[in-house]
Amino acid sequence: MSPSPAIRIVSAADFDSGTAQTPGSERLAAISAAQNVDTQLWGGLFKVEPGARTGIHHHGEQETITFVLEGESLVIWGNQGEFSATARAGDFIHVPARLPHMEINPSRTLPFRWVVVRSTATPIVVNLPDDTWPATAWHKVAPQAASNGRGPASAWSRFGAEVAHDKVG
What we know:
This protein is mainly beta.
């Protein structure tokens, strides 16, 4: 009889920032080979500071499920950046494989944090150039982020917050 697999508890002090990253955000691996966890999945935390945005990116063959722990995020996606929705604390998000997307934090004061689970053990992050989408795509939805923090803060009023001018970009 073979031994049962062990349950693994990974403490926050053991999270690994040496995982694949996208500019404008921070990912911390919690469940991965770096923590000596034998799994077919990847799990960790994702954070975007107030007023910041990620670059446009996708996760290759991986599907992603996230749970929003705190804050609010404007998520933009599509081959042309043509879709957007706001995710708030308590929401789940499913990101299909190979789907270009970006996240924007409209808050001046609060980061947003997600728990992330990916469908393969090795994280895949394919960062794309900002000109992947036409200038009119996400810039219409998020003019503050499009101008790298130099646009009017009032442009974010429809998202219920202003953006810190020195963080976006």
